Automatic annotation (TrEMBL):
Subcellular location: Cell membrane
GO molecular function: amino acid transmembrane transporter activity
Family matches, as InterPro entries: LeuE-type
Protein name: Threonine efflux protein
GO BP annotations listed: cysteine export across plasma membrane
Amino acid sequence: MLNTPDLIALVRELALPLAGFAVVTSASPGPVNVIAATSGANFGWLRTLPHVFGATSGFTSLILAMGFGLDSVLRHTAWLHMALKVLWATFLTYIAIKLFMARADATASARLRKAPSARQGLLAQWTNPKAWIVAATGIATYTRTGDA
C-alpha cells in the first residue's frame, strides 16, 4: 500500500507523461474526431457538444473498464476474446462495405437532419478500435502492479 508521500511522488512522476499521452492520443485523427469535426461544421459547436460529451464519457468508461479488469478477463477468456475479434472484424467489414457502396452526391449533407447524440458518441468509443488500443496502452503504460 502506498503512503501519502509515495502517492504524491508517483503522481508527480507520471503527471506530465500521462498528460502528453492524453493530448496526443485524443487529438489524433480517429473516427470519433472526424464525426465531431463534421458535425461541428454542419451543425455548429453547440449542437455538437452532446456528442463530444458522450464520446468523452464512452472513452472514460472504456479506460475504467480496462483498468478494473476487462483486460485481464479478455486475456484469460480465449473464447470471449475471439468472439469480440470476430464481432469487431464483422462490424468493420460492414462499415467498409457501406462506405464503398455509398454514392457521393451534392445532397448527401442535406440528408443529415440532426447532430449526432451523446449516446452515439458513447457507443462510438466502445466500437472504435483506436479507443481500445489507446485504453489498453494507457493502462499498461501508466499503471503499476503489486507493491512497485
